[in-house]
């Protein structure tokens, strides 16, 4: 591939490079280097922290340290995504070093020699060492390995000794940061008044009807928005329209689709392997050796589906038979063989609604039980378990209607598993199930299944050959060479029927253009080398060649009507404001929700009997915090709010009733909840505040 890339370079460019190389040989190769007098030291600065320049070399050294630690922990080199994360970790480590060291000194925070010894060889070995030094047979931390390693350091080579010294320093720095964060995290405190308010917000319930009038219910022609108004709106709301430095690009993508010849060659190859798979007696070893699938030999547990391309092509697969090859959705040819199928441990599927009792005892716990019983009766009456789960559930499953997926008996606590696996039919279990987590309302959605399969997957990726890639590159290179500005770029694209894509508001650290990943080099070109109207060379991505045109530059600062993204946003917001005023005028004297709907037929009327004061969403409507707040400002049944402008339209609500939160004797649970939430945010908030105070400036996008 490297040779092919060299052949692709244009002849004229190659001659120019040779000429420049001769000059470099005569006057010195560093004339344009990072430390050259011509280019200046700014070319080596990747950022500023607390007024101190961070050099490229210093940053790369920190990256290498972080990368080495990753390799020690995983036993492998990082992939591109992991390397991006490592660069970010290295940058954050530099920030911590530069701005936290002064804080540590002022507070008197230190790591003593005795503490460091305890961390690496005493009673309190840090987690990182414990993970690295485990016994492969037991999976537990092996102190003997640690002792052997530390004893070997005296005779180790200097590089290994230096690495261990760096590791110890990292351990110490990490412990200092933990101490610092803990000082502030443990200083969080919630008063009884705050806890009472938290309880009130969580347990005050409104039964309410409401109508939402969407903005599209008013025709755009009824509200005129001028450029002068848009400009004034942007200027008066600059807090909304602050912009970061960005670029706008157009680009033509030349996909690396395999040719018919490539497809035929791959199909011939996999057909040969299929013949061997039919005869082999060791399916797992064969596919591990010959398949390009991520998991070539896998267990399909009861309830889990077969791969889509297998299930779509075979109705009743039999053990020992090879099926395929089929063309998959991932541009590959794939064949399957069920090596074994048998009755394994049963799995079933259920959903639940959890009402937590964590930290509750006595009367408070009984109140939760009573509420759970009411919800169970409601579910039995309405039959709409999923809606109830979304409305009442208090764990992450509420977002998917309470679905727990397929599970083995041992995946859940005993009380829950016993109740579910005792069911003889699908449907709601007509009694509450209590576990250590709280009260569960359970719906069995699938009865136990036991069919287990061992599946061999033989896959060969269908990719463009070198010949095909060269042909595609020639087309892209010809297009780039003949497109010298925006006009010729667009004209040549239209002539060749190439699709021109747009990407606006591209940030300096972005790694993709729209949904096109791996585009970092294109973005670096746009920020470092290109002028508006410049056409790029050919960029090679994993699955395409790309030629780009820089269409605009946006500098950091106040937004302007000249920015098309900001103009569009401001226009929409201003138009919605005018539509909201129009709607309010039309419904000013109307006294019922039904009367409002007669004026605006596109409006929708809804209701909820369980709207909580701490909610920000109206069921069936969406994010509407102002409307929720107005609802809980009502006092009497039948009372209506004024029209409320939200991002989703204008809302009018009518109160049926409010059930105030009951008084409780102990608000400790809510105090702990507030304190814990605040403590969990402390480390992040500290970091953000320190970065802001240190005026951290990040120029890494110029280099990576």
TrEMBL record:
Pfam families: Rotamase_3, SurA_N_2
Major localization class: membrane
Protein name: Periplasmic chaperone PpiD
Xref: Gene3D superfamilies: 3.10.50.40
Annotated organism of origin: Cyclobacterium jeungdonense
PpiC domain ranges (all copies): 345-446
Taxonomy of the source species: Bacteria, Pseudomonadati, Bacteroidota, Cytophagia, Cytophagales
PANTHER family: PEPTIDYL-PROLYL CIS-TRANS ISOMERASE D, PERIPLASMIC CHAPERONE PPID
Protein's UniProt keywords contain RNA-binding: no
InterPro entries, A to Z: PPIase_dom_sf, PPIase_PpiC, PpiD_chaperone, Trigger_fact/SurA_dom_sf
Topology term for the membrane: Single-pass type II membrane protein
Transmembrane segments: 12-33
């Amino acid at each position: 591939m490297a040779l092919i890339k060299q052949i692709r370079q244009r002849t004229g460019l190659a001659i120019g490079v040779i000429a420049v190389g001769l000059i470099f040989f005569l006057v010195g190769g560093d004339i344009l280097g990072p430390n050259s007098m011509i280019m200046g030291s700014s070319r080596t600065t990747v950022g500023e922290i607390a007024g101190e320049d961070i050099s490229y070399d210093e940053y790369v050294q920190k990256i290498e340290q972080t990368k080495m630690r990753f390799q020690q922990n995983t036993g492998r080199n990082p992939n591109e995504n992991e390397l991006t994360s490592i660069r970010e970790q290295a940058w954050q480590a530099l920030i911590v070093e530069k701005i936290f060291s002064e804080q540590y000194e002022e507070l008197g925070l230190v790591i003593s020699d005795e503490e460091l010894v305890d961390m690496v060889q005493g009673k309190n070995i840090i987690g990182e060492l414990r993970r690295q030094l485990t016994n492969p047979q037991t999976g537990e931390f092996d102190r003997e390995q640690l002792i052997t390693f530390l004893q070997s350091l005296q005779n180790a080579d200097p590089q290994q000794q230096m690495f261990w010294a760096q590791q110890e320093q990292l351990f110490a720095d990490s412990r200092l940061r933990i101490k610092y964060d803990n000082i502030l995290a443990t200083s969080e405190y919630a008063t009884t008044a705050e806890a009472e308010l938290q309880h009130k917000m969580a347990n005050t319930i409104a039964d309410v009807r409401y109508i939402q009038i969407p903005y599209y219910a008013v025709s755009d022609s009824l509200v005129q928005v001028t450029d002068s108004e848009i400009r004034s709106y942007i200027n008066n709301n600059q807090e909304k329209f602050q912009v970061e430095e960005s670029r706008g690009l157009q680009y033509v993508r030349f996909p690396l689709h395999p040719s018919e010849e490539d497809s035929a060659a791959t199909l011939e190859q996999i057909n040969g392997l299929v013949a061997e798979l039919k005869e082999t007696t060791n399916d797992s070893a064969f596919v591990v050796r010959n398949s390009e699938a991520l998991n070539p030999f896998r267990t399909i547990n009861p309830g889990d589906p077969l791969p889509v391309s297998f299930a779509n092509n075979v109705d009743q697969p039999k053990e020992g038979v090879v099926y395929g090859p089929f063309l998959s959705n991932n541009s590959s040819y794939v064949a399957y063989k069920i090596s074994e199928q048998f009755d394994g441990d049963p799995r079933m599927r259920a959903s639940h609604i959890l009402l937590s009792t964590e930290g509750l005892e006595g009367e408070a716990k009984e109140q939760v039980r009573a509420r759970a019983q009411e919800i169970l009766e409601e579910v039995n009456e309405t039959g709409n378990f999923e809606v109830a789960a979304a409305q009442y559930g208090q764990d992450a499953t509420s977002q998917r209607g309470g679905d727990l997926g397929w599970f083995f008996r041992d995946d859940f606590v005993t009380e829950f598993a016993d109740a579910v696996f005792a069911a003889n039919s699908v449907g709601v279990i007509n009694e509450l199930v209590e576990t250590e987590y709280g009260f569960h309302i359970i719906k069995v959605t699938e009865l136990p299944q036991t069919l287990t399969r061992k599946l061999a997957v033989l896959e060969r990726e269908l990719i463009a050959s070198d010949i095909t890639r060269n042909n595609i590159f020639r087309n892209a290179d010809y297009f780039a060479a003949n497109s010298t500005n925006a006009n010729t770029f667009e004209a040549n694209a239209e002539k060749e029927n190439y699709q021109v894509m747009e990407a606006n508001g591209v940030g300096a650290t972005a790694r993709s253009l729209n949904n096109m990943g791996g585009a970092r080099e294109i973005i670096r070109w746009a920020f470092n080398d290109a002028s508006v109207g410049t056409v790029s060379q050919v960029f090679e991505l994993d699955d395409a060649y790309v030629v780009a045109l820089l269409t605009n530059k946006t500098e950091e600062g106040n937004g302007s009507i000249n920015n098309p993204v900001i103009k569009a946003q401001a226009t929409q917001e201003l138009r919605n404001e005018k539509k909201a005023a129009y709607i309010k005028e039309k419904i000013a004297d109307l006294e019922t929700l039904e009367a409002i709907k007669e004026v605006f037929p596109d409006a929708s009327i809804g209701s909820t009997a369980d709207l909580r004061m701490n909610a920000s969403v109206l069921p069936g409507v969406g994010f509407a915090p102002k409307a929720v707040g107005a609802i809980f400002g009502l006092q009497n049944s039948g009372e209506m709010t004024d029209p409320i402008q939200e991002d989703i339209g204008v809302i009018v609500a009518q109160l049926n009733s409010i059930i105030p939160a009951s008084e409780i004797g102990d608000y400790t649970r809510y105090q702990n909840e507030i304190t814990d939430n605040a403590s969990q945010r402390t480390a992040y908030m500290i970091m953000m505040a320190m970065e802001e105070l240190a005026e951290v400036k990040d120029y890494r996008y110029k280099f990576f």
